[in-house]
Amino acid sequence: MKELKVQYEKVLSDYLLNQNESNLYIGQNLVRQLMKNNISPEDLVSIHKQSMENIVPNLPEEVLNSFDFLIEVMVHFGLKLKEHQSLLLKQEEIRIEMEIAAKIQNLLLETKIPKPNGLDIGMVSVPVRKMNGDYVHFMHDDEKYFSVAITDVVGKGVPAALCMSMVKYGLDTLEYANSNPSYVLEVLNRIIEKSVDDSMFVSMFYGRYDLENDIFTFGSAGHEPALYYNSKEQTFTDLDSKGLLLGVLPEIKYSQTDIHLSENDFIIMVTDGVTEFRNMKNFDSRTYIKELAKSLRHLSAQEMYDKIFENLNKLNNFRLTDDFTIVIIKKY
Question: In whole angstroms, what separates CA 283 from the centre of its chain?
Fold first, then answer.
């Protein structure tokens, strides 16, 4: 410490005598030694004050007092700087962990779109954050049955992702696509109610399609109603099936409903991130999507989604505020 004080005073004295780039450069290099020896900002100001008193005798009292004031300021500045640096370090650690967790979630929840005979399927899920709170699960059995679950966890981030993993586990245990939607929802409800925190709830729309008889059977656990388009009548119907969110109460019964699909009929399943735009309060998103989908009915299911999302992005003030998931099932 004593050597550094002497060195600093020498460098400062040289600079005051000859204010040139060379002396300034030497002073800048001295910073590395100060940092290496853990010299705090307030200690550096104190060293500077002592050096000035030796170099310039009889400094005005006001100047000396200003150094004392600066020392006090630097003490608090140094503490706040350390807190800030520590916070930045923690934020970076969290960012890296979140990226790893998001990659793991993508691997665990990866969804392959099946290609059952007579159906055209399109889907996409866009997370608003790193971790996705929406999940789509498909099952397809021997060309007889095809089923789909579209799920939304009430919550965001890592807790929602962990809860979603539990949902996937529950769906995987069911194995077969011919299970009744009411039965599937009741099983998942018991699993989630026992396995996740009381503050976490899950909404789900579950549909099973009988490929031989073209019957779509569906049930819902507090989920956004799907949209069914009847091509013959050129009308939309909301597929609304009343049911409590999964995980609220253990012994809940869920109802199911059948509809018949004809050629060119289609069903649009969504999460509330598609229909609730908080920054567009007076915008009727469901009506807009119905009209848009009707005008795009000649396209494939995936092309329909692409155009729907493209047109939504063109709207003024459109901004995703929630995870955005659409599944389109089209009968051909």
Answer: 24
Cβ neighbours for 151, distance < 8 A, ≥ 6 positions apart: 134, 135, 136, 137, 164, 167, 202, 203, 204, 223
Q: 216-263 pLDDT, tens per residue? A: 999 999 999 999 999 999 999 999 888 999 988 888 999 999 999 999
Helix (H) or strand (E) holding 93: helix 61-108
* Torsion on CA atoms 209, 210, 216, 221, rounded to nearest 10: -50
Average pLDDT of the chain? 86
Helix (H) or strand (E) holding 34: helix 21-36
Task: Please tell me the pTM assigned to this model.
Answer: 0.71
- From the centroid of its chain, how far is CA 197? 20
Domains annotated for the chain, with CATH where assigned, are 2-101 (1.10.1240.30), 109-331 (3.60.40.10)
Residue 133: which residues within 8 A CB-CB, separation 6 or more?
A: 127, 152, 153, 155, 156, 160, 161, 164, 322, 323
Mean of pLDDT values over 24-44: 85
Rounded CA-CA distance 119/116 in Å is 6
CA–CA dist 80, 110 (Å, integer)? 44
